[in-house]
Amino acid sequence: MAVYIDKNLCKGCGLCIHFCPKNVFDITDEINKKGFNVAAPTRQKDCIQCKLCERSCPDLAIVVE
Ligand code: SF4
Ligand code: SF4
Q1: I need a labelling partner for 24 at 20 to 30 A (CA). Which of 3, 33, 45, 64 fits?
Q2: Binding site membership of 52 for ligand 2 (Cβ less than 6 Å)
Q3: CATH numbers and ranges of domains, the chain
Q4: Atom of ligand 2 lying closest to residue 48 CA
């Protein structure tokens, strides 16, 4: 099981942080090619595979496997 974020699709909107019931995501200091601070699944060991993040990301940047 893993949560992936395509960093160059992410726009740092924070919706994944808002919707994840297990508080898996953080916005990081890393800046992508578009100039946005990207989200990362820093606590993915807590993930319950509900896929709310995948469905809530407006840029389809998240994949839960
Ligand atoms: S919802 Fe998508 S675009 Fe927004 S911060 Fe999360 S991964 Fe990035
Ligand atoms: S699948 Fe659910 S628990 Fe896992 S990171 Fe996405 S929203 Fe959070």
Answers
A1: 33
A2: yes
A3: 3-64 (3.30.70.20)
A4: 3
